[in-house]
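pinning this so it doesn't scroll away 📌
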Amino acid sequence: MESGVIPKVPTGSKELIRLLKQGEGSTLEFKRSTGELREGLQTVCAFLNGSGGMVLFGVRADGAAEGQDVSDHTLREIAQALDRFEPPVNIPVERLQLQSGLEVLILRIEGASDSIPFTYEARPYERVESTTRKMSQEQYEQLLLERMHSKRRWENQPAVETTLKDMDREEVFRIVDIARSVGRLVGPVGRSLPDVLTRLGLRQNSRILQAAVVLFGKTFLPDYPQCELRLARFRGIDKKEFLDQRQIRGPAFKLLEEAELFCQRHFPLPAKIVPGQMRRVETPLIPPDAMREILVNAFIHRDYAIAGGAVSLAIFDDRVEVWSAGGFPKGITPDSLTRHHLSVQRNPLIADVFHRTGLIEKWGRGTNRVVDMCREAGISTPKFEEITGAAVVTFEVSVRSTIQTTPQVTPQVTPQVTPQVVKVLQRAQKSQTRDALQVVAGIKDREHFRLSFLKPLLAVGWIEMTIPDKPNSRLQKYRLTEEGMKMLKVKRA
């Protein structure tokens, strides 16, 4: 401080005198005027990302309180600059008039916010002793990850008035069985629904969490409109005419299955003759694992706090789009998804249950694998975008549908009568378990068998359930129908 003299300040401003004596440090910054507003707000950002602090405008670096003229324009300039923080902040401007008539402006910042990390003008800052500096990308990503696992999220809030009766018990244990079969749920599980939900982190203090409703809800009240899937097949390359459309509300895994079936219904299966083999080789329009990865990401990363949002699948003649409400999680940009990137989970509870089924990993490699699979299949890599608050993934492909539809009729696809399908129909002449049919088809992946064989055969009525009112019963078996018998005789002939 110049000449060691404390400047004169008004009576009652003991705090200012104390701060001036204290000098700049890890929680205090002086700026001569709002001419240094940008640098001052970079320090505000650093304090927000730390334990808090104060920035004083109108004080020299040596602690001399000179003050400055403060006009309406000055205050508007500060307010506009505060809008450049992400997440948004609300920091009131305190004004302290000196005896000279000039003013010192004080920005007081509370620390330890659940919204950390903050950025100013898209850059994060941190405070080290009395210096403000840009935060490293590694540190920023770590703070992002911690924020995504914060204590207060939509998914881990209690589902008001939801009880165990609202949970689909059969769906819960179907997923538990899958998790155990892939080795991601070890140890005794039991058949107690409350205990299983608690073990999965979906029930706390005897209260059902909202994540449980998303995953296993049986009754979807108006309180959960976000648990919706929108499906559309358009004619041409715009949205003028529907060939098929559906809106389905239900638990996440069943919505995923519906989306995959919709793809199977509307994706052609291009084929070519392999020289020297005299047989057709059929190639999916989009690699099934790539399509599934993008759909799964849409369900686990969407912002469920947006009640009017949904996951949408739109199929055009020249492309396939998957929309997810809420944009990408903070810290994830469209460009980063095609490179190595941190796995940032908006809904870690929901993502963990999907992980246990083997549908996802937790290492941020999913989109990289999708890119690799598309390249190997010889199709364009998907385009990742953020449009009007939604995350959008677009596959540019040629979808030529031969399905004839009317607005009143949902199209059905006749399964291709491959040798595998014939074997399944032959075995089903006597009631068989799902596992027995899967073995005869020679399919190792249970989910692939269910989606590509079992469901289509049920849909066209070639086989039927022996216990149709309990589709997920452990005693369920499947048998050939009269229509299936006719098809089998045609194939034999």
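📌 and the second one:
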Amino acid sequence: MSQNTIHLQCKSCGGNLDIDRNQSLIFCPFCGSRELLIDSDAVAVEKIRQQTEFKKWEREDLQQQREENEKYKNSKAGNVALVFAIICGLMFVGSVTIIRSVPNFLRSLSLLLQTASFLLSFLIRKETVRLPEKLQLKAVRTPTLLMVIGFALFIVTFIFTAM
């Protein structure tokens, strides 16, 4: 049973009734009788108070979420992502000019993926690019994951540089 369900007995037949707390008309499935459920003034005032408090909490949550999103959007991580995107992009341009072997090609590909990862992280964080709802992650923010992928690709780039 949900929180909004209350248990009553039919005044006509004594049957057990489970009704929604917000219902004002009770219908007994056993005897067919109908009864108007009238709240006392105190109950009506309490319902209004609870609804008002809930809306206040909802507004506060929304405001807090906006503030957190604004902090996240303007965090230094976005600038870090942009700097690394530029560095990796320059390294990619330099490595493309000397592709003479498979390791150099793979290194260039790794640098290209790093550049794309960091740049996309920056653009999503600054809300220049919006991902479709089905591509957004719930547990981790997508720009953060893209930065982690970019940094992980440093290992791959280092391995291909060492070859």
